[in-house]
Amino acid sequence: MRGVPITCSFTGHRPSKLPWGEDEGDARCVALKERLTGAILSAYESGFTHYICGMAQGCDIYFAEAVLALRRQGLPLTLEAAIPYGQQAEGWSQEQQARYQAVLGQCDYETLIQDSYQPGCIQRRNRYLVDHCSLLIAAYSGVPGGTRQTLEYAMRRQVPYIDISI
Question: Whole-structure pTM over 0.85, yes or no?
């Protein structure tokens, strides 16, 4: 695989499933962001240079921002936004939309899974994340939902993963 970037994807919870909600000043959120950065650094040290993020609110954005911060520090990382449908951020607060656009504007690649929302598009995005990586980082609390389904899909596909417990 010389010359080909090794890809790491990410899955994690949205604010509604996080114990701190949207309070990113909460010590548990700060600690999670530190563990995310540590997991990305560990992946990088193992040869992973390309990272894919699903661009959802919460942990996905934390992950993307951590990759971008490490890139600003000089690591040769690329970031891909896997967008489930074109209007993903529509209906979010102005602040969250601005954050989404700021991350998206720094991505090296954008993959649009489908133009408009249709049932199943989020699951298709989640399968894309797993099908296009050699390692999955998961910020998972044990609750049912998309993060669990993505992690279970990775296990069925025998994709190694790093579980960053929340």
Answer: yes
